[in-house]
Structures are given as structure tokens and as C-alpha cells.
Amino acid sequence: MDENAAVAVQGLRKSYGKVDAVKGVDFEVRPGEVFGFLGPNGAGKTTTISMLCTLVNPTGGGATVAGHDVVRERDEVRRNIGLVFQDPTLDGYLSAEQNLRFHAELYGVPKRLVGDRIRQVMEMVALWDRRDAKVMTFSGGMKRRLEIARGLLHSPRVLFLDEPTVGLDPQTRSAIWGYINQLRLMEDITIFMTTHYMDEAEYCDRIAIIDHGEIVVIDSPEALKASVGEDRVQIQTADDTAAIEALRERFGLEAAVREGAVTFAVPAGEAFVPRLFAELGMPIRSVSVSRPSLDDVFMSYTGSTIRDAEAGGDTMAWMRAMARR
Amino acid sequence: MATETIGVRVPARSAGHDLRAVKIVLHREMLRFVNDRTRMLSMLMQPVLWLFVMGTGLGSLVQGSIPGVDYRTFMYPGMISMTVIMTGMFSAGSIVWDREFGFLREMLVAPVSRGAIVVGKCLGGAIVATGQGVVILAMAGLVGVPYSPTLLLTLLAEMFLAAFTITAFGVMLAARMKNMQTFFGLMQMAIMPMMFLSGAMFPLANLPSWLHVLTVVNPMTYAVDPMRQAVFSHLDVPAHVNAVLNPGVTWFGRQVPVLLELGVVAALGAALLGVGIAQFRRAE
Questions:
Q1: Contact B115, B190 (CB under 8 A)
Q2: What mean pLDDT is reported for chain A?
Q3: Is the CB of residue A106 less than 8 Å from the CB of residue B107?
Q4: Where are the alpha helices (DSSP H) in A153-268?
């Protein structure tokens, strides 16, 4: 196990009675990376994050966070992590600043730093102007931003974000991602997050796909997509039949007309485009290269799309039954 | 943003750190109370109603049997304890509220001892309750109780002790509660009989023996009696009336000294605090 890993997990398990919520997972999170846990609701994401944050004791296996054991050195772990939960944990009757001050005192932030640090994290999430407003007057997005600021207040080495953007509108979601990206530049921090939004997983350096309490695969989004298959290239030409013929002869590619364009699959599509122009021997009017999406990745590793996985078996059976009628 | 990032290193757990945690939990309790005017007002209305409406009404009924003493003067120490107890219980109940709204989680995941959080909560509740009691203290003159500095200080200290114990009791109840309704239901069930049997409303002398036993085992009796003793020691009451209205508490025929009564309350408070902390340690 890497000594320097921000999070190192070995054979971590959690059972609730007969239900195995997490069935023995192994992974490491490198310092400074954004690591995403991607899976449908009920896959074991929150249970795993709760064990790493010392809120739930594992049934088996172990984990270290910032070099400390999550069971034996609970306080050490807690000192070094920031937490943003799915559900808000703010006191609505206190002002935004009072909420942060409470946190600073509870975490023992050195007194001479408290004021400046509060201002810094609040400015980071653009809430400094609203510091005196009661939190209950805040919108969902503002509350989430304030919670992120609070999670950062004590300069944690690892920030855990459990579904940080769930239930927020697209604009707020992208704003939150803006803060997270900015945060990586400003602070020396590792971010561990869970999400079931495919488009958000794209922002992660590496993602682990978790399904039914097990990790199916871990890699960078790029590598995952590459592993799924080749890029899809579509070209527009004056003579599609000739183009298909030329592709077969010169490149040995099987092409077909799909969605009104000559379509074929190649590995590393972008690198192929210059060759295509140089060697096809006929004018190309337009070209588009598309990568497989994370949806494709999820589909290929788990055999279902994330939405179907969330909808559950019964709903699927019902939908199939409806479709047959 | 040109400013450099301020790096914070969270210090290892120490007594000083726990003390800061106690202080901030307490501070929040006060902020919450001060911000909630309605709660403040309703908490004050209740004893005022009891004292001036019930007290005056019942007083006219019993006037003949307690010569020289206003019934409201008799009720006064009881009303102080009642105010303090209700306020303390409400403060403790906010733990359930905090759990429902998630804020309890913020406290429980912090790298501080559960003890610090529970102690902070109990002290906060006790201080808020004592503050409410001060308002009742200010009304002493209206019911014929003198504004003697020693009396006021004694009552203040006894109030604080009672408030701390009752808040600890409430925190212990609230430790596992999931919703407010259950808590307030249970609170009513626990508080009403304790209140009736404490001597807050009627004197504990000449009661049927079964009732007398209940009053002796009721912990609240030991919070109310010292206050009554303090008030009556500053009044000029004929001995036979004093014997009826301020009989004290007896164990096996012997009068229990005030200090021992206060000791009972303090010991109970400490024990309840211990149980409360243990429950929060277990409730992960």
C-alpha cells in the first residue's frame, strides 16, 4: 500500500444484517487528485464514504485517510478531513458567518486565523456579501456553497463531497464545479466525491464505478472511454458510396451510412483525421469525431445504464411489459 | 484573488480544545435563544399566568387557612423552579431538532469529545434557564418577597443547579429521540407529575402517606424545597403557618438539611450528564 496515498482502502466491507451494502472494496486515492465514486443510488457510495469519514464502523477490512486508520485513529482522521453531506447540516437560525465560526471553534482553528480564514473560504464561494444573513433565507445552491466553504475552513487534506450537486439546478451545478476546480488550484487538497451524474464524473481525474457494493473498474475517464471502444468518426462527402469504397481499400475500415453521414469506428479518432484527409483521395465536406461517453462506459461494465440501474428491476420489467403491448 | 491561501493546522485534541468546543456550543445555545423572541415571551408568560392568575384565584380560596401569608408568596419559589425547568427542557429538546435538521451531525463529526458537546449543551440550557429565572426574580416585590441580596444570590445559585440537572435530564431523553413530537410527549409525561409532586403548587405537609412517599422520591422536590426555605427564611411568618407551608422534606422522620438536598440535585445532575454522554458515545 502506498504510504503517501490520501485514501487507501483494503477489503472494506459493511453489512447491515443480511444485506451487504459494501462487499469488500480496494482502491487508493492519490494526493491532490479528484477521485469520483460513480454509481447508481443504493450502490454503496454513501456507505463507503461514511466509513472513510469515521461515521460508520466497517464490518471488515480497513482504510486509512491522510495516513490515519479510520477505526483506531478516528480523531486524527476527523482533523484531516472536510465533509459535505448530501443533506444540509447547517443551523438555519444562525447567520452564514456564525455557522462557520461555530465550525472553526469546534475544530480548534487557531484563534488568530479564524477571521481571515472565514473570509477567504466565503469569498471563494462568493458568499462573503451574505455573511450576516440567516442561513434559512438561503437557496439550496447557496447552502451547498456555504457547506463547501465550511468543509474547507480547517484546511482539510481530504475533502469528502457526497453528491455535492444533487438536487441543484444546472447553473448552480456548474458554479459548484467552478468552485471545486478553483479550489484545487488554491489549496493543497485531495477531493473524494460521489456522484451519479455522468457529466460530472468527467471532471474527475479518476473514477471508480461502483455497482451492487463492488468496484467494477477504476481509471481515468479518458482511459475508461478508450477501453470501451473506438471513437466514432462521421464524414460528409459528395459521393458516399465512393467514400465507403475508398475507406475499405485504403484503410481497411468498414463504413456505413448512419444518420446521413459515412460513419466508421477507429481507435484515437482525432489522430486519424489528418491521415484521412491526406490519403482518402476525395474531398471531405465535414468531419466529426465523437468519443464514447461515460454512459457507454457504465453500460459496458455493468450491463445497464445508470438510469436503468436506479429505476430498479421491477420498473424495467414493467416497462418491457408495457412495450410489448 | 491575490491573497495567499491561509493554511490551517488543526491541533491535536487537548483540554483547551474541548473547552473551546464547550464554549461555542454554549454560545450557540444563547444566540438561538436571544434570536427567538417568541420562545422567550411564551416561556415568561406561563409562570406569570400561574403566579398572578392562578395564584390570585386560589389565594382567595385559601386565604383563611394561611393567615399572614399571601398564597402567591408561597407559590413563588415553585414558579421559579417551574420556569427554570420548562426552559431547561426546551433547550435540551433542541438536540432533537438539531438531529432532524442535520446540525447535530456537524457537531458529532468534529474531532472533539462527545462530553464537550453535551456539557456545552447542558451549560447553555442552564444559563438560558437561569436567565429566564432572573426575570421572575425581578418580580419578587410584587408577591411580597424582599429584595435581599443574599436571598437573590442564593436563589440564583439554586436555580442554576436545578436548571443544569433538568437540562441534563432532557439531554439524556433527547439522545436517542428521532422527532420532536415524541420528545415533547415524553417531556410532558415526565414533567407534569414531577411538578405536581414537588411542592411547587401545594405544601407537602399533612399529605396522605402514599402521596408523601411520592413527593419524597421525586427529585424535583429537592430542587424546590431549598428555594422555598430560602424565601421563607426572609419572611416574617408565624411558626405554625411556617410549619404548614414550609415543612421541609423529611427522611424517616428527620428533616433533610438544605445542603444535602442540593447535594442530591447536584449528584443527580452529574449522573444524568454521565448517562447522556455515554448515550452520545454509543449513538454512532
A1: no
A2: 86
A3: yes
A4: 170-186, 198-201, 221-228, 240-251
Contacts of A28 (CB under 8 A, 6+ apart): A1, A2, A5, A7, A8, A9
Closest-CA residue of A relative to B99 is A89
Q: Which residue is closest to B33 within chain A, CA to CA?
A: A93
**Chain-chain contact of B103 with A98 (C-beta, under 8 angstroms):** no
The chain-wide mean pLDDT, for chain B, equals 88
Q: A7-224 has which CATH code? A: 3.40.50.300
Closest-CA distance, B213 to chain A, in angstroms, reads 45
Task: Quickly list DSSP for A153-176.
Answer: TT--SEEEEESTTTT--HHHHHHH
CA distance B224 to A153: 46
Crossing angle for the helix pair B149-174 and B180-196, to the nearest 10 degrees: 140
CA atoms within 13 A on the CB side of B52: 10
Distance of CA B284 to the CA centre of its chain: 28
Give backbone dihedrals phi and psi of A21, rounded to 5 degrees, phi first: -75, -40
Q: May I ask the CATH class of domain A230-290?
A: alpha beta
CB-CB contact of A74 with A35 (8 Å):
no
CA distance B86 to chain A (A): 21
A145 touches chain B (CB under 8 A): no
Chain A touched by B253 (CB under 8 Å): no
Contact of A116 with chain B, judged by CB distance below 8 Å, is answered with yes
**Mean pLDDT on B35-57:** 82
Give this complex's ipTM.
0.85
Q: Tell me if chain A has a CB within 8 Å of the CB of B100.
A: no
Q: Give the pLDDT confidence of B18-42 residue by residue, as tens digits.
A: 999 999 999 999 998 888 888 778 8
Cell of B188: 410532558
The whole-angstrom distance between B115's CA and the closest CA on chain A is 13
Compare all CA atoms of chain A with the CA of B3 and give the residue at the minimum distance. Answer: A120
In the block, which residue shows the cell 484503410? Answer: A251
- A100-112 mean pLDDT: 93
Per-residue model confidence as pLDDT tens digits over A167-191: 888 888 888 888 888 888 888 899 9
CB-based contact, B282 to chain A, within 8 Å: no
Instruction: Please report, rounded to a whole number, the percentage of residues in chain A having pLDDT higher than 90.
Output: 43
Q: Is A122 helix (H, G, I), strand (E, B) or coil?
A: helix
Measure the CA angle with vertex B192, ends B187 and B193; round to 5°. Answer: 115
Show me where the domains of chain A are located: 7-224, 230-290
Distance of CA A315 to the CA centre of its chain: 26
User: Which of chain B's residues have a Cβ under 8 Å away from the Cβ of A105?
Assistant: 20-21, 23-24
